[in-house]
Fold this sequence. Notes:
Largest sheet: 7 strands, parallel
CATH class of the largest domain: Alpha Beta
Strand order of the largest sheet: 3-2-1-4-5-6-7
Number of helices: 12
Bound molecules: NADP nicotinamide-adenine-dinucleotide phosphate
Amino acid sequence: MAAAVDSFEFLAQEIIGVFTSIRDVLALVGVAFAAKRTLTLSGTAWQVIRVHGLARLFPERNLAKRYGPWAVVTGSTHGIGKAYAQELANCGVNIIIISLGQEDCEATAKYLEQTFGVQTQSIPVDFNEGKPVFDKIQKEIEGKEIGILGERKTLNNVGVMYDYPDYFLNVPAEKLWQLVHVNISAATMMTHMVLPQMVKRGRGAVVNVSAGGCCMPVPQMTVYSATKVYVDFFSRALNYEYGGRGITIQCLIPYYVATRMTKFSSTLSNPSLFIPTASTYARHALTTLGWSERTTGYWPHTLQSWVVRMTPVWLWLWASTRLNNALRRQAIHRQVRRKSSVRNPGSRPSSIILSDPISSAEVKLAGLF
Ligand SMILES: NC(=O)c1ccc[n+]([C@@H]2O[C@H](COP(=O)([O-])OP(=O)(O)OC[C@H]3O[C@@H](n4cnc5c(N)ncnc54)[C@H](OP(=O)(O)O)[C@@H]3O)[C@@H](O)[C@H]2O)c1
């Protein structure tokens, strides 16, 4: 009997011993997890302070000296590209405008020359035409370079989106080609064209414009977001290859910016803290150059990107589908309203068409993401 009691006590002590050590191990795991979280959070907070705070307090004043006297900006006759070109010109950088439409290019060139006293060169092209476009640009750039140009800074900004969010099979094949030619080929081939001289001189910067849609799959902007993943991965790998040779390769990842690209929606064309104008966005984004290789470029968008990163993928897919359904309804109603006022100028559109088919919860969601 006594032997049985002894063995029970022994067994109980053994079990308590094991549980104590498991508790110790769990406590250690908890401490390690908390330490990792704290380190990650403080690292992120420091990055935000550095990229969006210190960078704005101590902006690079002499961009021409640091990166070179000329900047090539693609898609620079409207939106973010035009605003970024203005910011560069304001810092005394000469601009090569590469965009659609001769008149728009010339008007932008004249405006930059008269307002900021910089030199410009216009190269009107349609990136949708593929290889011949790059041969043309190469020729124009080469001719000028032999004379006066040194190192360059390139903003690969040009980009197109769907007319409004829609299912893959509803997007015309022509638009899909355009997305590939403009969003992927232009960034790749422009970089291939200007990088050799930067490498040779050991200075320069390539800024590629991706989009928040590169961080998660975006249903109904399927191909657009996929092209932006390409831009993001292209920039990150390229930075690893050439970043150490005095060249800055930066990827900008903006969320919504009120430009012509967001015109399909009245919600997204309304500037707010989270949907800045192109000039506000460009002003913030330029200050991050040299401070971050991969950034949203604008601090409220960095807050948005945190929320997106913390959202489970299933929830993100569900919410973005709901949001894009709402945006499509809004865009289609806008189109109908516009057509009706063109057909009957001066007439009041019918009440059905006037009602905005986007609920207030969806509006808030659209404004945030
Ligand atoms: N707006 C946003 O919410 C947003 C968000 C994230 C990322 N982005 C990205 O930011 C970049 C700029 O967008 P944005 O909003 O400023 O667009 P935007 O206002 O529509 O301006 C696009 C510019 O690209 C030019 N362009 C368009 N197609 C072209 C082609 N086939 N060949 C040559 N030039 C062409 C346009 O020339 P024309 O003026 O002659 O038409 C215009 O100057 C894009 O890469 C876009 O994906 C935008």
